[in-house]
């Protein structure tokens, strides 16, 4: 006579692992072929360019203010 066994069976464990492998594969395919990585790289480049533009603009404003405001001692 078999007692009531608790826990998961080997079949359920194997099916779960197979489903996880399939989900990981689909995710990797969409990440690289779907352009997610390319779009992330483009966004990083845009951020770097915008930061440089902002820094240059701020430097110009500070230089303009310094030229208009007399120095105090």
Describe the fold and architecture.
This protein has 73 residues and is mostly helical. The chain has a domain at 35-67. It has two helices and no strands. It starts with 9 loop residues before the first helix and ends in a 5-residue tail after the last helix. The mean pLDDT is 86.
Layout of secondary structure:
Elements: H1 10-33, H2 36-68
Which labels suit this protein?
78% helix; 73 residues; elongated; mainly alpha
Strand content: under 5%
Q: Would you tell me the structural class of the helices and strands?
A: mainly alpha
Q: Percent of residues in helical segments?
A: over 70%
Provide mean pLDDT, rounded: 86
Number of strands: 0
- Counting H and I runs of at least 4 residues, what is the number of helices? 2
Q: Let me know the largest β-sheet.
A: none
For the termini, the CA-CA separation is: 98 Å
Unreliable runs, pLDDT <50, ≥5 residues?
A: none
